[in-house]
Amino acid sequence: MSFRGAILSEEYKEKGHLFSGMQILKGVVQRKKMDDEARKLVVKELAEVVGPDNCTDNPAVLASYSLFPVVTPEIAVLPESVEQVQGILRIANKRHVPVTPLASSTVSLSSGVFIPNGIALDCSRMHRILDINTDEAYALIEPGVTYGQLCSALQAQGYWYPLGSFHYAVSVLGPTTTQNHGGRGYGGWDEVASFEVVLPDGTVVRTGGSMAPKGSWAHQYVNFPDLHGLWLESNGLLGVITKLAVRIYPKAESNQIHIAGFKDSRSAQEFVKRICRQGVARHQVIFWWHGLTLFNHFALLEKHKLDEVGTLPFEWIIRGRTPPNGVHYNTVVTELKGYREVVEASAGVCDRVAREIGGEPIPWDEFGAKNPGLKSFLEEYGIKKQPQTPLVNLITKSMGAFSTIPIIWPGIGGPERILELEEYFWKEMALKKDMGVWFAYAHPFDQGRCFFSRIYIFRFGENQQRMLMDALENADFNSRIVREFGCFPHKPPIFNLDAKMILDQTGGYGELLKRIKEMIDPNNIMSPHVNPFADVPELPGLGK
Amino acid sequence: MATLKEYELEVMECLRCKTCTSLHPPELYQTEHQLICPSLERFKFFAYGAGGQMSIAKAIVLGNLDWSREVAEVVYKCTMCGACREKCLGNFGRIQNPDSFKWTNLIECFQLMRAQLIEHGHIPGKVKDFLQHIMNYGNPWAEAADARGEWIEGTGIRKYNPGDEYLFYVGDLGSYDPRGRRVAETLGKLFMKCGVSVGVLGNDEGDDGNEVSFLGEEGLFEHLARQNIESWQRLRVKKIVTLSPHAYNAVKNDYPKFGGEFEVSHYTQILADLIRKGKIKFKPANLKVTFHDPCFLGRHNGIYETPRQVLGAIKGLNLIEMARTRESSFCCGGGSGNYYMDLLGGGPNSPARVRIREARDSGAAILATACPACLTMLEDAPKTEGIEEKVTVKDLSEIVAECSQ
After folding, report:
1. Which residues, numbered 56 to 95 in chain B, qualify as contacts with chain A under a Cβ-Cβ cut-off of 8 Å?
2. Which chain A residues contact residue B75 at CB under 8 A?
3. pLDDT tens digits for A97-131?
4. Which one, of A41, A449, A513, lies nearest residue A235 by Cα?
5. Taking 60 as the threshold, does the pLDDT of residue A13 lie above it?
6. For a pLDDT cut of 70, what percent of chain B falls above it?
7. Whether A400 and B92 lie within 8 Å, measured CB to CB
8. Going by fewer Cβ within 10 Å, which terminus of chain A is more open, N or C?
9. Residue A73: CATH number of its domain
10. What global pTM score does this model have?
11. Start-end of H helices in B210-258
């Protein structure tokens, strides 16, 4: 039986292939590698810094440093301290060898998706929680600290840190600094109070209050320009982060989840804006009915057998704009936490505001009866703060069920812009033959000043070649959504051409970033394969 | 011979998410330990974990890496403990087991990689020695075959006769390793004391082949299995009790493929049965014990409660669980022949030392196990760690023997 049989009809079961991206990578990113003599010399020098057991050029070890091992680094090194990181970077700078830093070597979001040459600087040995300060509500951690490690340590002290979409084996640093979203309690950029970074020349920089010997790591804003933003979404281009101070949150006295259904995305967005801008809730999720249905299905399959759960009729999910009878187009999940009295009152406010906008509050038990998988999942995430099943697992299982990689990735933009993007997807893409659109969910960030929308476009491929062409034809989509919709992709680009096409639209900003990069890293050793200011090879098929 | 091409879909769909090497909730929230993979704990490079091995497999399938000495150096550092198979949240493409939605063939994939390494002539020297010694001498230490039964002398334990209820299969460690011999003798005497109809084969016993199979040498494994099956069938053996979970695994799960259908038990199951029947009675004890689940008893064969029932029957024995227990047990590092080859080496991150520190932190004074390979790996760790006053390592049978009336 195929896993895809969980939702796909027979017609689509065997179609699709995950390999199409590989061929693009091979063509794009081949760069000159060191010859054997040079590599051996660098390995020897690095081994003197980190010890011979923590440095290798074994190609089998190097193969594990790319999600797509058609291109791999030339050396992998495991430092254990800031001093060792300094030593590595000084050698790399002296020898002009590229360096790509990695935090936990898991599913890499950015520069670590593939590393075409040079040194993979693997920080997973730097995995100490250096301090948990509940007075100032921050945790000081090294780059290899994972979510599981941090959540486990915080739990013992009555605190928590948002897990977000990720799972417990992933480093906190990676997703926290490489997904361009904000808001406290979400697990994004605004959780970072300060950094310690080693620059390519070995200089150590601390931001915020930590720059002063007796200053506080929790103190982000000092009376000088706040530089810590330089290393958010820097994608390994501007140095190696060796410490970060993240904001932590006390466990709430009361946790509740409020559910409300809406007939369209505009109404759902309006509800979210009214609730979070008045401080009623910190975190909300707008589920489209596709996402709700699929996540519920796969959440059930995590804990129950397929025979018990049954399959889903797939076609009406990926083609239908109109949900079935009794199903709301959007369902908003609002996480209420805090003092008991406040939570109770907030639930009442959510009910009233939802009705004012034409929505329908749904009692928790009623929601759970219709969506038992999702209810269990939300209870673990939103109430117990001890998720058993990572959200990323549901997302990737859902994607895997479509038996292809998505052509279009999620984006972040203002509320109206996201609505325009949604209309575009429905009108332009959804009705094409063999194309599918999967609307998953949207998050408000920064009190709904912008929304992150997880919407995917898929093609049910007839063959690998067709999907390769799709991927190439849409490789510039990230820059198109910036240009045409004013939305930004939610992850750092993994192709430097992609980044370049976006930055070319930004005028002075792109120019300043280029100057900063050249000043901090004049030899271009830090993650050069994602450097948008370096020479960029042409992608075949683009420019039309 | 099968190739990685048969696992292409699974290999390519590995997302390198690292859940295969990590503790999951709820244990995750109960301990400072995060890793479940002994090789990754030891070497730290991701390649040594299951996801890393899948990356290697991916690179080979894509034609970007060849079978080589360098690949062998990484692939053979896996102890085949099965933790990754237990923890993998993947299986996005093909369901191997519709009931579990887990990618159940991780271990098979790694065995296949080893088989292909052997076929291409790339195996580490110690692995080669291990296999050759077993082939030539019937044991990994190249000890004389007719020394296999020496341990029986003076114990009162007798050779198996047709008509005995159980063949007590002792295995290599029980036959040749000094520590293993003591456990085999303890157990044999316990059986006799309880009136169990049991005998051993002594010099006529052959290697069970479990490690050979997990090292990828399927041809030699089949030869060993058939040899044992033929010998046991000639002796009209119906029931077998094994000292080692490794032998239990091979006889239970693989021997039937070659016509070897026997009723096989691990010794903990026999002891549990004897206790239930009142044939073993205990005097009061005052012990704090934690149990290390052997991988081939627990994860590979699902036997978690039986050893606990045995220990639980001893009044005054306080059984303390480590956080990494049962399905999440942390491997001692001895699997896949490592009790002999020691490919993981020493150092503070060696699995045995990590595990003994965990046992000490649990508050237990005794770390009990039910596998001679685990015993071999763990026994010296307290001394290496300098904590021999705080925790000692014992086989479960020894605790039963010491506490029985």
Report:
1. 56, 58-59, 62, 64-65, 68, 70-71, 73-75, 89, 91-95
2. 60
3. 999 999 876 655 556 677 878 999 999 999 999 99
4. A513
5. no
6. 95
7. yes
8. C
9. 3.30.43.10
10. 0.90
11. 210-214, 218-234, 245-249
Q: Which of A53, A152, A307 to mutate to test the interface with B (most CBs of B within 10 A)?
A: A152
Mutate to test the interface with A, among B5, B8, B18 (most CBs of A within 10 A): B18
**A409 and A495 in contact (C-beta within 8 Å)?**
no
Contacts of B73 in chain A (CB under 8 A): 58, 60
Residues A241 and A272 in one domain: no
CATH code of domain B279-403: 3.40.50
Domain identity same for A373 and A307:
yes
Looking at residue A544, its pLDDT comes to: 31
Task: Tell me how far apart the alpha carbons of residues A420 and A440 are, in angstroms, rounded to a whole number.
Answer: 16
Q: Distance between CA atoms of A287 and A271, rounded to whole angstroms?
A: 13
**Cis ω for the linkage preceding B372 (within 30 of 0):** no
* Same domain? A276 vs A215: no
Instruction: Tell me if B163 sits within 8 A of B236, measured CB to CB.
Output: yes
User: Which amino acid, A64?
Assistant: S
CATH of the domain at A230: 3.30.465.10
**Is A20 strand, coil or helix?**
helix
The ipTM is 0.91
Range of the domain at A39: 22-125
Q: Do domains B126-273 and B279-403 have the same CATH topology?
A: yes
In the structure encoding, which two tokens stand for residue B4, read together?
């990685």
A145 domain residue, yes or no? yes
In this model, does residue B362 exceed pLDDT 70?
yes
Q: Examine the fold and report which residue of A208, A231, A250 is the final residue of a domain before the chain moves on.
A: A250
Q: What is the band of A69 on the pLDDT scale with cuts at 50, 70, 90?
A: confident
CATH topology for the B126-273 domain: Rossmann fold (3.40.50)
pLDDT digits (tens, 9 = 90+) for B303-324: 999 999 999 999 999 999 999 9
Same domain, yes or no: A169 and A208: yes
- pLDDT of A14 reads 38
B233 at the A interface (CB within 8 A)?
no
